[in-house]
Design a protein that fits this description.
The chain contains 13 helices and 11 strands. The protein has 362 residues and is an alpha/beta fold. It has 3 domains: 3-164, NAD(P)-binding Rossmann-like Domain (Rossmann fold, 3-Layer(aba) Sandwich), CATH 3.40.50.720; 166-287, 6-phosphogluconate dehydrogenase C-terminal fold (Orthogonal Bundle), CATH 1.10.3660.10; 293-360, 2-Layer Sandwich (Alpha-Beta Plaits). Helix 1 (11-22) links the parallel strand 1 (3-7) and strand 2 (26-30). One of its GO terms (molecular function) is NAD+ binding.
Length: 362
């Protein structure tokens, strides 16, 4: 791939453009808002000047409702050898293109499984897709050359290609992406009218659950409007679990010992099923999940402290698999939770204590 045209310079389009441009591809940028394309160009994503001839690959990075029309326009104009979209739903756009009677040999659907709570070109980064799955949904007519262009795009963005059927993709993202967004928003919505005394107690648990609730509502309305059925199906199952859990909790309030026992059993059941589901979430580098041990270290909120603790862990010869920071309310301090291989935890703890760090139990 030597040339590409990115249509839509939001977070995903601009991030892909920056990644391609940084690896020697000549990238042309187009957006319905020329100012966004100029912003992306200023960030090193390419040029907002139109290509002189046909490019190798056109990447359509517009909201799902506009994908088919944008692709149809680009394909009719013969802008590229191959055409690809990055919308978060795949079945609907494919059916719309088929209904338009377009030749789909030059088209392949795709969806990079990466994003942020922030949107727009200013949120873009070249490493947004590194190590992340990038789903490809070829049609039965997709030409091999176009598939190879898509695979090259994924490789240049340092993502991991995953080939799926379009409708299977939509059911999958309803479960692992779209429903979590709604559930996170629903939990966060409970905080809107909560007493200030309750909000002040927010810890890492509520922060983890509500992180993605900060996402742009307008963007998510567009996404959910393109995949309502599969999301509703998953939410229906969640609603059934909620109903059962509410009944179980009510039973725990009963004076009847048998009802309290049944209530405890019901709550335990959903928690255990949650354990089993969480255990299936892929771990580091997509491998089977690993149970890490946490070494929690008290840290002051001063420049250089994080660098110092990571350096001390390196001197101990221990690889940090993951890290979380929990800030202390009303204090210039917090806990850094270092997740490490269980066998390495004792030596790391001893080494950090020798270097003056205060450890805490979690």
């Amino acid at each position: 791939m030597r040339t590409a045209l990115v249509i839509g310079t939001g977070l995903i389009g601009t991030s892909a453009a920056i990644a391609l441009a940084s690896r020697g591809v000549t990238v042309h940028l187009r957006d319905h808002d020329p100012a966004r394309a100029r912003t992306a160009a200023a960030l090193g994503a390419g040029t907002d000047e139109a290509p002189e001839g046909r490019v190798d690959l056109a990447i359509v990075a517009v909201p799902p409702a506009h994908v088919a029309a944008t692709l149809a326009e680009a394909m009719s104009a013969g802008l590229a050898r191959g055409y690809l979209d990055v919308a978060s739903v795949k079945g609907g756009p494919k059916r719309e293109l088929e209904a338009l009677g377009l030749d789909l040999t030059a088209y392949i659907g795709s969806h990079p499984m990466s994003g942020k709570e922030r949107s727009g070109p200013l949120a873009a980064t070249a490493d947004l897709f590194e190590g992340r799955p990038w789903v490809l949904t070829p049609t039965r007519d997709t030409d091999t050359e176009v598939l190879n262009l898509a695979l090259e795009l994924v490789a240049l963005c340092r993502a991991v290609p995953v080939v799926m059927d379009a409708d299977a993709h939509d059911r999958a993202v309803a479960l692992v992406s779209h429903t979590p967004q709604l559930v996170s928003s629903m939990v966060a919505a409970r905080l809107e009218e909560a007493d200030e005394s309750a909000v002040r107690l927010c810890g890492q648990g509520i922060r983890d659950v509500t992180r993605i609730a900060a996402s742009d509502p307008r963007m998510w309305v567009e996404i959910l409007s393109a995949n309502p059925g599969p999301v509703a199906d998953v939410l229906s199952g969640v609603a059934a679990d909620l109903d059962e859990t509410v009944r179980a909790l009510r039973s725990l309030q009963s004076a009847d010992e048998d009802k309290r026992r049944d209530g405890a059993s019901g709550v335990e059941d959903v928690l255990r099923r949650g354990n089993a589901g969480r255990a299936r979430v892929p771990g580091k580098h997509g491998a089977a999940p690993t149970a890490y041990e946490t070494v929690a270290v008290l840290i002051s909120d001063q420049p250089g402290e994080l660098a110092r603790i990571f350096a001390d862990a390196g001197r101990a010869g221990v690889n940090i698999e993951d890290v979380r920071i929990e800030h202390a309310t009303g204090q210039q301090a917090g806990l850094v939770q270092l997740m490490v291989d269980p066998a390495a935890a004792p030596s790391l703890s001893a080494s950090l204590q020798e270097r003056g760090w205060a450890l805490r139990t979690t």
